[in-house]
Write a structure and sequence with these properties.
The structure holds two protein chains of two kinds. By secondary structure, chain A is α/β, with parallel strands linked by helices. Chain A has helices at residues 2-16, 19-41, 61-70, 73-76, 86-94, 108-113, 130-152, 154-163, 171-188, 213-234, 236-242, 245-250, 256-286, 293-317, 321-338, 350-356, 360-373, 382-407, and strands spanning 50-56, 79-83, 100-104, 118-124, 197-201. Chain A is elongated, with a radius of gyration of 29 Å. By secondary structure, chain B is α/β, with parallel strands linked by helices. Chain B has helices at 40-47, 69-74, 91-101, 106-119, 135-147, 165-180, 192-198, 216-223, 239-245, 268-281, 296-304, and strands at residues 2-11, 14-24, 29-33, 55-60, 63-64, 76-79, 153-157, 184-189, 201-206, 209-215, 226-234, 252-256, 260-266, 285-292. In chain B, helix 3 (91-101) packs across helix 4 and helix 8 (216-223) crosses helix 11 (296-304). Classes of the chains: A alpha/beta, B alpha/beta. The complex binds adenosine-5'-diphosphate (ADP) and magnesium ion (MG). Residues 11, 14, 16, 34, 36-42 of chain B line the site of adenosine-5'-diphosphate (ADP).
Chain lengths: 410, 310
């Protein structure tokens, strides 16, 4: 036991000399995570991603403004608005050919101007996750804006109602109004009572809440950090061999198994620091329930040790330091690619994600993604834990075996 | 304390160590003298459990290194030929770590590490990293790591290679101190003077074979009082025999070829004129003369016909 902890402390003390490597391992996920977040926030270049059907049964200035709000420039990249009749819209959304179907009832403008209740109907496509959520959010913002506008500018509205030429407003007028609605909404902030105008969402609520797409990247990014760390740490066996300390080890009564275990514990602590920092920021950013933090940590640390064990075993099976370093470094990239670190497993081609889910890191990513995106508490699936534990044990066993069968001697 | 019997280590067709055996006792320094590639390190590596012997038995403090490795290793300290240190771990931590590997702990370990640090002259550099040390300091730390647990059997593999004269002197004193404290020391070297100065008894090995064994005095007695005379120049074949035929003292030919002639005899200096005369009489030309009095190096020359240091 003394020797186990001595080995652990020795390696930690040695890694403290190499803070730069650790900072790089932490830096990589933050850099890549940051880039991805930036990319997600920027407008895409290639046309709208989804279609919103709007059946405007009211056909007034106000209903036109609602339609225009969805069609605004920033939104146009994400959502293409397609005016339809009520029947046609119903058919299309049932067939799953659009992301959402908004019905603006006849009398909507009147209700708004007269300050009485009116209801928009939004049907969303349950098989899609992201876009319907965005459409819902916009609809709610619009209606809130409308409500506050009405409360604040009641007299002006009345003036328009009484005198304005409201039947066929110009496009410019409509879009201006839409812009003003949003601007006002932002300035006014939270107000008073419940809006009279409401959105009724008729789509069957999906069982799971929709994860935002950046969240799908989080497990892959955490694992990217762990993979780089595991590969880097595993090179230490060759370093120790070159420095002669493995030879000295073999001539002492200290058990090679304890040595390997002590080294793995040191790796575990580094994994906890590196993975933990990444997870922590991810949890903050994506607002994930904190009760999942501890199991997530344990999950990635055990898996991280498993990856370390496998990389180390592989290194120790290769004939020289250069080959070991080159091979494991090169191996990292296809594994990261398949295992959902560059693109989430969910968006990879089916055949690739099928393979990726069974790569060691992809397996860890896919379980972690399931847990982090689910509404239910962490499910302690014994089979998953046994799998990663077996991965760790088998890798470390090979290391220990190699230490005793000639790896130590030059 | 340390016994090696019929040890053979085969690398494919090459027998790096070929059926050697010796025993070394408590409180003694046993030397293993031989040129580079003789098989010294291979022998040490087999004894320290790093290499499995092809055949033969090794026992340390009564325990067989193969069958009872952990117990045998507990009595063993190793100072390997190549440095074996954590260069990125302070000197002090190196000593603590290897002490713990040998099962030392607590106050024992503390006091032992402090003693060793003073002993190897690194007390004021204890918290520095070995990568900032000079070669000699690293060697001393390497030595310290091998003795931190007061081993009963201490293996030293060419500990003075690449060491400055002062550190070398300090190392000799430390080895002697270990011996005086009762350790059994196995010391390998290819320096005759070191073996002569340190070793109570020694074995000479070449090409993996043990070619002579005994105390320094016994080995010198094998030589008698005979000097070695090395001549370089131009010699025709059969010249050696012609010189011997002249009946000069107890002269014998050790080796000869076209460019060199090695002779041995008692009190060679007295006979030099007669030897030169007989050589030129036989048509040889002497360009260089080297006369050496008997020592382990000339014994090696006598036994193998070649120099200890190439
Ligand atoms: N791993 C190895 N594989 C093949 N030959 C080796 C190996 N190690 C040593 N040898 C050979 O064994 C012989 C003895 O080497 P060594 O014990 O290192 O000699 P020394 O320490 O006396 O200089 C040399 O001829 C060397 O080339
Ligand atoms: Mg050697």
């Amino acid at each position: 036991m003394t020797f186990l902890f001595a080995t652990f402390r020795k390696d930690i003390a040695r890694w403290r000399q190499d803070v730069v490597a650790i900072l790089i391992w932490i830096g990589i996920p933050f850099m890549i995570g940051g880039l991805i977040t930036l990319m997600m926030d920027r407008d895409g270049d290639d046309g709208p991603m989804g279609v919103l059907l709007i059946a405007d049964l009211d056909d007034t200035l106000l209903s036109g403004a609602v339609t225009a709000a969805f069609g605004r420039e920033e939104m146009a990249e994400l959502i293409g608005v397609q005016p339809v009749s009520a029947e046609k819209g119903g058919e299309l959304i049932e067939a799953g050919e659009a992301s959402g179907f908004l019905t603006i009832p006849a009398g909507f403008q009147d209700a708004f101007l007269n300050n009485t209740a009116a209801t928009l109907t939004l049907k969303t496509n349950p098989s899609q996750t992201i876009l319907p959520g965005i459409i819902e959010d916009i609809a709610e913002v619009l209606l809130d804006a409308g409500f506050y506008l009405q409360v604040t500018f009641g007299p002006e509205i009345a003036k328009i109602r009484d005198g304005g030429p409201l039947d066929r407003p110009s496009d410019l007028f409509v879009s201006d109004l839409a812009v003003q609605i949003n601007d006002k909404m932002q300035k006014l902030g939270p107000q008073l009572t419940q809006p009279l105008l409401g959105v009724e969402i008729v789509a069957p609520p999906p069982a799971e809440p929709r994860p935002d797409i950046a969240l799908l990247f989080l497990p892959g990014i955490v694992l990217m950090a762990l993979m780089f760390a595991a590969q880097g740490l595993s090179a230490d066996y060759w370093k120790e061999r070159e420095s002669g300390t493995l030879r000295r080890l073999v001539s002492t009564p200290g058990l090679p198994g304890l040595f390997v275990f002590g080294k793995a514990l040191a790796a575990a602590l580094l994994m906890a620091i590196i993975g933990g920092a990444t997870l922590f920021v991810g949890f903050l950013y994506h607002d994930i329930v904190w009760s999942k933090f501890l199991p997530s940590m344990v999950w990635i640390v055990v898996s991280g040790v498993g990856l370390f064990g496998w990389f180390a075993a592989l290194q120790m099976l290769l004939p020289n330091m250069r080959a070991a370093d080159l091979f494991t470094t090169i191996l990292v990239f296809p594994l990261l690619m398949m295992g959902g670190s560059f693109f989430p497993l969910e968006v990879l081609p089916d055949w690739l994600s099928a393979i990726g889910r069974w790569s060691p890191n992809g397996y860890v990513v896919s379980q972690l993604t399931d847990e982090l995106t689910s509404v239910s508490p962490w499910t302690f699936d014994l089979r998953n834990w046994c799998t990663v534990a077996a991965m760790a044990v088998s890798g470390l066993a090979v290391c220990s075996w190699r230490l005793q069968t000639g790896f130590a001697s030059k | 304390m340390l016994s090696v019997e019929n040890l053979t280590k085969q690398y494919g067709d090459l027998a790096a160590v070929d059926d050697i055996g010796f025993a070394a006792g408590q409180g003694k320094i046993f030397g293993l003298l031989g040129p580079n590639g003789a098989g010294k390190s291979t022998t040490i590596n087999c004894i320290s459990g790093l290499l499995p012997p092809t055949s033969g038995t090794i026992s340390i403090a009564g325990f067989d290194i193969v069958r009872n490795g952990r117990k045998a290793k507990a009595s063993l300290g190793v100072v390997p030929q190549e440095l074996a240190l954590y260069e990125d771990l302070p000197a002090l931590e190196n000593l603590y770590y290897w002490g713990k590997a040998y099962g030392l702990r607590g106050a024992d370990l503390e006091s032992r590490v402090r003693d060793v640090l003073g002993y190897i002259g690194l007390a004021d550099r204890a918290r520095d990293l070995p990568k900032t040390f000079s070669g000699g300091m690293k060697r001393r730390l390497n030595f310290g790591c091998g003795i931190v647990h007061k081993p009963k059997v201490l293996l030293l593999d060419e500990p003075t290679v690449g060491v400055d004269p002062q550190s070398r002197q300090r190392l000799f004193e430390m080895v002697e101190a270990e011996r005086d404290a009762g350790a059994c020391v196995l010391y390998t070297t290819h320096y005759m003077e070191e073996a002569e100065r340190l070793c109570d008894s020694l074995a000479i090995i070449d090409h993996g074979k043990l070619i002579a064994e005994g105390t320094v005095a016994e080995l010198k007695a094998q030589l008698g009082a005979r000097d070695v005379l090395q001549l370089n120049g131009e010699f025709s074949s059969g010249l050696g025999a012609a010189v011997v035929a002249r009946g000069i003292g107890d002269l014998e030919v050790l080796s000869e070829n076209d460019n060199s002639l090695t002779l041995t005899m008692t009190a060679a200096s007295q006979y030099l004129p007669a030897i030169f005369e007989s050589i030129s009489g036989a048509g040889g030309v002497v360009r260089e003369t080297n006369l050496r009095s008997p020592n382990l190096e000339t014994l090696f020359l006598l036994l193998t016909g070649k120099e200890l240091r190439e």
